[in-house]
Design brief:
This protein is an alpha/beta fold. The protein is 43% helix and 14% strand. The protein has 7 helices and 7 strands, in the order E-H-E-H-E-H-E-H-E-H-E-H-H-E. InterPro entries: NAD(P)-bd_dom_sf, Sc_DH/Rdtase_CS, SDR_fam.
Length: 254
């Protein structure tokens, strides 16, 4: 496959969660590949920093200051795009609590962001792609948590499992329009969301994750951004309804 398969010149991408972490790394890489990148996040300062980085690298970026739980604002932002070829639905939050201590409001908050925010972005993007008649690629963000149980991650894991089911179901429904839908399920990635705020706790967690990985390391946002680029590009033209797992080998499902 020629390297040009990763060339996104002339295409447009909408990236949620673009202000930091995996979202920022993905937005930057999509921009480097030639796409016009619509960056969306509720973190206004980080959002504009990401857009500035894309522009500094010679790319084109637009900003949409929004919370993905605001469905009307999300719809307005996506439909305002002159064209849309790629959606990277990456925005998410983390919550940890034992099952017996999990409150309804905890579950509702995580589902609102990590599942409904993805669902609504996918709905609006797919509608626009179908109307354009040019196909497209939708990339959702799952997690290694969908492949194994982990203490305290009921809300997060359940929401990400729902994203996996959304990904597979949507892929079966929009494939006839030339739209591919795939998910990325990262392992432990060093991002602001996984920051323990305490250096000792952070070091302990990363040491544990390093030992669990056959590669002997934790991941970076750039590791995941490359998976997003692959799924967004023509290099994965025959791939849909799949879960790509850049997780350092910590989970190897059949």
């Amino acid at each position: 496959m020629p390297v040009t398969a990763y060339d996104l010149t002339g295409r447009a991408a909408f990236v949620t969660g673009a202000a930091s972490g995996i979202g920022r790394a993905s937005a930057l890489l999509l921009g480097e590949a030639g796409a016009t990148v619509h960056c969306a996040d509720r973190d206004t300062e980080g959002l504009h920093e990401t857009a500035a980085l894309i522009k500094d690298g010679g790319g084109t970026a637009h900003t949409h200051d929004l919370d993905v739980t605001d469905r009307a604002r999300l719809r307005q932002a996506i439909t305002s795009c002159e064209r849309l070829d790629i959606l990277a639905a990456i925005a998410g939050i983390m919550h940890s609590s034992p099952v017996l201590e999990t409150r309804d409001e905890d579950l509702d908050r995580v589902l609102d962001v990590n599942f409904k925010g993805v669902l609504h972005a996918c709905q609006e993007a797919a509608r626009l792609m179908i109307a354009q008649g040019c196909g497209g690629s939708i990339v959702t963000m799952a997690s290694g948590a969908v492949d194994t149980g982990a203490r305290g991650l009921l809300c997060y894991g359940a929401a990400k499992a729902a994203v996996v089911q959304l990904t597979k179901t949507l892929a079966t429904e929009v494939g006839r329009h030339g739209i591919r839908v795939n998910a990325v399920a990262p392992g432990w990635i060093r991002t602001p969301m996984t920051d323990r705020r305490d250096s000792e706790a952070q070091a302990h967690t990363e040491a544990l994750m390093t030992r669990m990985s056959p590669l002997g390391k934790v991941g970076t946002p750039e590791d995941i951004a490359h998976a997003v680029l692959h799924l967004a590009s023509d290099a994965s033209a025959f791939t849909t309804g799949q879960i790509v797992r850049p997780n350092g080998g910590v989970a190897m499902p059949w």
